[in-house]
Structure formats: structure tokens, C-alpha cells
């Protein structure tokens, strides 16, 4: 399992390398929700489901060590990322999922 950052707050402002990390990925799911905790929980469930059979790349969050920005499973050509990381990036073949559709109000 690889763990790394694709975004960072630097002296020159926010940098975001998600587009280059998603090259050759055919399926990208963008999780939309105001709660970083909910998105992290969903990403962790994807990691738990696939880590025993696939090489996983975990995208760490520059916001806090308690959050994740996403997961990439190259063997399945699949990425699941949070909306904050996808913001202002053109990600081909991405599907946005509004996570509030699956939460109780």
C-alpha cells in the first residue's frame, strides 16, 4: 500500500496534482458532501474491500491526518476521490455522487 499527498498548502499557495495521478484511470468516482468525515469513511470502506487483493494508493489529506482525499486502484483502473481534490480539475470519465442521497436527514 502506497500513501502520499496529491495536494499541499505551500508558500506559493495550494498545489494539486490529482490530474497527473489519474492519468490512464478509466473510472473515477467523486464523492460530494460537506462532511470530510463521511467521505473519509466511504474511502476507507473501499480500501478495506480491495486492499487484500490489489495494490492500493491512498491519497492523504493536507487538511488533517484524520481525513483521506481518495484511493486509486490502478489494476482496476478505478479511483475514488473527494470533491475538494477534484475541484478546478478536469477529470475525464468522472462520475459525481452526492453522498447526501445515502444519509439520513
From TrEMBL:
It comes from the Bacteria. This is Uncharacterized protein. It comes from Oceanobacillus caeni.
